[in-house]
Write the structure tokens for this entry.
Amino acid sequence: MLLLGIASAVTAVTLVVLTSFLIPTLMEMKKAAAALRSVAEKTEAQLEPLLMEARSAVAEVRIVTASVAANADGVSLLMEELGETGEHIRAINRVVGVVSTLVAGSSAWMTGARVAGRFIADKLIRKRG
């Protein structure tokens, strides 16, 4: 019976010691949980406006993307028209180049013909005079 009494006393003392260490630990855990809850609530309150702004930004991006997709056909048509315009300008430049070459050549011929005509006219005038 003495052994049973000693074992009971040791068990009781052990429980008292464990309880004396466990109570402050549990109180600190309670404080930490309350602080964590407070931080979580503050974070949630601060994240709500950010999430609303992010949702509106995503909605605006979707609208812009949809309008860009709708205008893609118009842009491709514009690019085709610009390509055709470029081809027409190149053709006009070729024609202008040919015409300017002809005009430059004909003006040289005209100048030569005038000089030759004056020369012949001078010769004829000198022969008569």
Q: What stands out?
A: Residues 121 and 127 are 10 Å apart (CA to CA). The chain has a mean pLDDT of 85. The two ends are 174 Å apart (CA to CA). DSSP finds one helix and no strands in the chain.
